[in-house]
Amino acid sequence: MKILITGGAGFIGSHLVDALIEEHEIVVFDNLSSGRMEFLQHHKINPRFSFIQGDLLVQAEIENALDGIDMVYHAAANPDVRLGADDTSVHLEQNIIATYNLLEAMRKKSVANIKRKIKIAFTSTSTVYGEATVIPTPEDYGPLIPISLYGASKLACEALITSYCHTFDMQSWIFRFANVVGNRSTHGITVDFVKKLKENPEHLEILGDGMQRKSYVYVSDCVAGMLHAVATSKNEVNIFNIGTDDTITTTEIGNVVIDVMKLRGVEFSYTGGKRGWKGDVPVMSLSIEKIKALGWEPTYNSRHCIERTAQSILEEMEKNV
Fold first, then answer.
1. Alpha-carbon distance 259 to 50, whole Å?
2. What is the pTM of this model?
């Protein structure tokens, strides 16, 4: 197939490129606002790889990028959950409007070539569930009441995708992720903790009360789960959680990072409250029974995910010294 990956220079998107390029022609579409060309450097000489620097907010650019495309992996988004409390338009524009523009371009391409119904796989999030009362949370949980603008924007994207599938005869896979971590991470709690401890190896400030408990999934497992579901689940709309069967607290993450960095005697302080920031969900654990029934299971548990991520961050820092 010829596959378009939006946000393909980003964290998850670049790993999708790595996983798909052995068997498919890959076109990456990215505005490089948060993506990094260095994540794709090793593919530049591959004849199956091409890159388009474009913006999903410009309709003509995404329409042109869809020429000859069989499937889209839509990973482009502003991933910073906390940002919505300071800038209320960023997730509207970069998530909802960007997704609408993509779907509309896909619709036009499908109309122009009735034999080519473009498929879409979408990277959604556990934050669409809000503060779920059922833990682990299954895909059919409801009502969905997100408490962050980021979660709201992803839920709106899901609704647009499912309605376009029904109205315009498309097919989709929607993936609600736990916290995805791993090499090439550019933000998140592990990155924050490593940076803080590099600045001051004797003290670590933890947002909230340190008791926030969440599930973490390694990026290679996440991508493998996506590809497995796309290959094995063939409904018009396919919705799956991707995560792990366990959780880890914020304080435990601090201890894991300290161990990886081989530090001793680090003093913790807490900002207080059950949330790390406005919109933070204190407890998140996803049921992954649905995707496990297809034959996929995560390789790493949450603790191992944090350990591997902290190690990769440190290795990257050493390279750049």
1. 41
2. 0.96
